[in-house]
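Regression check, copper (II) ion case 403:
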Amino acid sequence: MMRQLYLALVSFAAVLGANAQMDSVLTLISKIDFQPSHELHDGNQILLMGYSSTIGGSLNLPSPTLEFKENDSIQLDMWNLSQGPPHTIHLHGLDVDQENDGVPALSFSVAHDDTGSYMFKAPHPGTYLYHCHETSVLHVQAGMYGVIIVRPNSTDTMTWDNGYSFHSERTWLMSEIDTNWHHDTIINHTYDSTAMTHLVLDYRLQHFLINGKSEHQLVGNVELFASLGEQVYLRLANIGNYGNRMILPSVLNAQQVSSDGRPLPNTVLSDTIEILPGERYGVLLDCDAHFQGTGVVEYFNLNTGQVENTQNIAVTVDGYVGISEYLEEPKMFPNPATNQLMIALPESIQEMASVTIENMLGRRVLEQKISDKPIIIAPLVSGNYIVRIRSKGREWNRKLIIQ
Ligand SMILES: [Cu+2]
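Current build output:
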């Protein structure tokens, strides 16, 4: 009897449609600016075509960031009010089925004044992109793109379940602008479904953006202010046509822990991170010294390898994070060190923690259990080392300079 009732309930739910089971329903409206209103660093204003969560008002670059919880059932509705061509929402990097992927030929397009719904489960915590896949070269340049963040279900301050914890996060999305593509005649193009090609201009970029801003616009918008001891999770993404090379101050101890929405099997300790078009990286920063300076993003031409533009991001590490937060992760000090090194552990992992120190050739030069006594490093020659702290199946890596 129970089984029959259960089956009856299941088919009832199927009749109701997926709507009844959604954890989250959200709507993006694709539209075009009535007048140029996105201001560039030189004061010029350009027309955008993009997505918005409101009908009125001008568009923002990038389009809104979408946030989902891992495994949640999502209904993402799109309402096309852009007056011209059809649009889609392509879920770049998310494992969703073809019908809901927003690639026009395999999925569906949404014509002007029409609506469409994308149904999917948000898989794998990580950083993703969405963009229009109709006449993509033009529509992406026009502004039809944004970031998707999938968070683990249990917490907002971990990269994924049993992953890395962090105190705060920043999302930096790189792109470019060629203002010639933003003239009304180009961006507001009439749609001809029989035409296989569209007018494509030469790509002559004048603007190199982080979160839609560049040059002095970055001040107050795209900056990194952090406290000493703070773990910052940096989500980097590139939706442009150039490669990006981000070079961070070494006091941030940048560690790449994920790429394209998946944990990296081996984390990479490097101040330099290259992000090719469409790629995303998760970078954990461990701000372990007071600092004031800049990080840079180089934009390099993929055909020539030449860096054609550089943007500067102000970086300040000041003050201290609270002591309880301070000890969510192992702490190592001083750094640079000379004779002795201390490692402070959070209470939860004080048992069975060990440390190994490797030189830059990857050779293990020291290995011992961690206690409350200093580790004697006087016998080690001066230079750069990698310190690996392990406990209960987890590992934290730190760069160490021995002077
Ligand atoms: Cu489009």
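Comparison notes: The mean pLDDT is 87. Helices lie at 2-16, 136-142, 184-187, 323-326. No diff flagged against the previous build.
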